[in-house]
Amino acid sequence: MLASEVYELRANLRRQGVVFAYSGYVTEGILSGVGDALKQKLVSEDADTKTLRSVFAVFVEQMQNIIRYSVERLPTDGETEVLDISYGIVTIGNEAGGYVVHAGNLILLSDVDNMRRRLSELRAMNREELRAAYKDQLRSETDAVGNSAGIGLIEIARRASKPIEFDFMRIDDQHAFFALKATV
Amino acid sequence: MQNIDIPATNRTPAVAFDFDVGHLKLIGESYPEDVTTFYNPLFDALKSWLSDGSISKCRFEFELIYFNSSSAKAIMMIMELLDSAAEAGKSVDVFWFHDPEDETMEELGEEFGEDLKHAKFTLEKLLDR
């Protein structure tokens, strides 16, 4: 029974082409560990350099978006330097010969409209426009090095081989689930 | 000024700032856990070295395989420091080496290079690696 339950979970993921799946609390340390395994896996599949780097780049930005912006997070005490620990899901898999990175996390319901607008803009941009947007965003934020959702999403859109896909689902009065799909 | 020599890790580039000869390099991958902690000491050192009036030239080499979007901001800030030093009359040479198979890194190099108004910029393919 136990084995079949766990096997079924794994088989479900496999059927959807998922090679890596992480669901739970994410930290920078988990990003490092899963990232290293992902790199090895891509190398073993003989992915070309550009694909390898792009899949990895999208993975890093997706993970860091969760770490920084998921609203489902463990409390930090604010005094000592506690690293962020936030809940989210990331999967990496194959679909029609390409690699696909999915990510999802909870956000505030009140942020949905803004994010939808921003992501729709990114989806509509061609390569040149994405390049310009990346630079604009960098310039507008040079006063502070550190967290930024804007530039991360642009990086994902730039590295993707087709327009990014996104969706939102209302969870309760305050929260929505945000899902993002990037194909490399 | 004390030279800086930091070996690369999985997530941070090797830093070789040889202030004695004016040769500065960042080599490897950059997606630090905390961008500020990694880059701030480097900015501070670079800034104070460049503000020394007796320094007349600087060669800065970026040899990055990959960097994340937070590191991009740090790179832009380094470029800005270098460009203002060139504007102030120093001879500044910036090199951007990229993997020939990775056009994104080449594009990013072009983009950062476009912003240099005073420093000399060279985009070059990284060979035999």
For this entry, give a set of tags.
heterodimer; A: 184 residues; alpha+beta; Heat Shock Protein 90; five-stranded antiparallel beta sheet; 49% helix; 24% strand; globular; B: 129 residues; alpha/beta; six-stranded mixed beta sheet; 3 helices
**CATH architectural label of chain A:** 2-Layer Sandwich
Largest beta-sheet details of chain B: 6 strands, mixed
The percent range for helix content of chain B is 25-40%
Number of strands of chain A: 5
Strand content of chain A: 15-25%
How are helices and strands ordered from N to C of chain A?
Answer: HEHHEEHHHEE
- Class based on secondary structure composition and strand pairing of chain A: alpha+beta
**Number of H/I helices of chain A:** 6
Q: Order of strands in the sheet with the most strands of chain B? A: 1-2-3-4-5-6
The total strand number of chain B stands at 6
Shape of chain B: globular
Rg of chain A to the nearest angstrom?
A: 17 Å
Mean pLDDT across the residues of chain A is: 90
How many independent structural domains of chain B? 1
The CATH topology of chain A is given as: Heat Shock Protein 90
- Lateral arrangement of strands in the main beta sheet of chain A: 1-2-3-5-4
Report mean pLDDT of chain B, rounded to a whole number.
Answer: 95
Distance between the termini of chain B: 32 Å
Describe what you observe in this structure.
The complex is a heterodimer of chains A (184) and B (129). Chain A is an alpha+beta fold and 184 residues long. Chain A has a single domain (2-183), classed as Histidine kinase-like ATPase, C-terminal domain (Heat Shock Protein 90, 2-Layer Sandwich). Chain A is 49% helix and 24% strand. Chain B is 36% helix and 32% strand. In chain B, helix 1 (35-50) runs parallel beside helix 2 (69-87). Chain B is globular, with a radius of gyration of 14 Å. The mean pLDDT of chain B is 95. Chains A and B meet through helix 2, helix 3, helix 5 and helix 6 of A and helix 1, helix 2 and helix 3 of B.
